Amino acid sequence: MGVAELTKRLGEAKPDMTRFLVPESFTPFYFTPIYHEFTRAEKLRYNQLFGLVYNEQFVFYESTLSRYLLTPVLENNRYASLHGIIREFRADEMQHAELFSTLNRCIDPILYANSNLNFIQLPAAVHAMWRFFAGRPEWFPFILWLIAVLEERAAYLSRGIIKERDRLEPLMVEVYQAHLADESNHFDYDEALLDRFWYDNRSWVRSVNAWIFQHVFTEYFTTPKRTALRVVDKWLEAFPHWCSRRQELHDALCKLDDDSDYIKSLYGPDVIPNARSQLAAQPEFQRRQSLLCLLGIC
Fold first, then answer.
1. What is the 3-state secondary structure (H, E, C) of 6-46?
2. Nearest CA to 60 among 227, 271, 178?
3. Of residues 132, 155, 139, the one with CA closest to residue 206
4. Cα separations in angstroms, 224 against 32, 183, 219
5. What pairs with residue 168 in β-bridges?
6. Residue 269 maps to which CATH number?
7. DSSP-derived secondary structure letter, 122
8. Does pTM surpass 0.90?
9. How confident is the model over 235-261, as pLDDT tens digits?
10. Ranges of the chain with pLDDT below 70
């Protein structure tokens, strides 16, 4: 079934909310001692909320990518050699953003009645920053490495969901299976963009962008912070007896920045093998030892 047809069918489908949405090991609390105090119902609700977050991430990144990076490239004749693949790439990303937003409305129609994003909430200044970076790939090609890392991790996530399909919500499995089928072409698109905007760029631009990548990556893509804490607060609405331990719950997540098992679950050698090897091969990233150590390749 194609993505467009699947998106249409989700509008009338009914999810099985007795099932988890993602493997438990794909959620931050799984790596904390406090998770083992949760009842089955508490684990289920937390898992379902974090499954919605994963879907929101796809909505955010794929709509942002298509609007702020791919569209400006298409509108610039200097990049005419890329226009063919970029049109295909943009069409895929726009379809995927709609697919995942529809999936979230299917799973929780009340929460997503008025917005596609509820847990991912960027301040206007941060949103403007991402738009500024993405619209200038010749000056800020670090964003292409972020895309490469996140797309490879997305493929790993999809494979993990498909692997545990017998215990997960069927519609969730079907959507991630359809998404994975499209992702194989995206790795070629990523490489074409890196060839044009990273490998052919000036050495000082690459060096500055390696520094930017390190700081953006560690701030937004490692330790559970803003989005993960919003999930906790939403979860507490269903289990108010935990409210007295709210700070303990938040602290447990914040401590994961020192948890090697948690970081490995995000960016380990079995999660993003290609991106890890490519980053480690770049002289500009070889000088960012703390970044490489964070990824376990120092």
1. HHHHHCCCCCCCCCECCCHHHCHHHHCHHHHHCCHHHHHHH
2. 227
3. 139
4. 12, 26, 10
5. 20
6. 1.10.620
7. -
8. yes
9. 999 999 999 999 999 999 999 988 889
10. 1, 298
The parent domain of residue 195 ranges over 3-294
Report the phi/psi class of residue 296: left, alpha or beta, with left for phi > 0 and alpha for psi in -120 to 50: left
Which tens digit of pLDDT belongs to each residue from 118-155?
999 888 888 888 888 888 899 999 999 998 898 899 99
| 95, two tokens | 């379809």
4, two tokens: 């467009």
Listed residue (165, 167, 190, 189) closest to 177, CA to CA:
165
SS3 168: strand
Count of structural domains within the chain? 1
| Residue closest to 63 by CA, chosen among 102, 29, 17, 96 | 96
Distance CA 191, CA 181 (A): 18
Residue 168, phi then psi, degrees to nearest 5:
-110, 165
Query: Which of these, 211, 53, 221, lies nearest to 147 by C-alpha position?
Result: 221
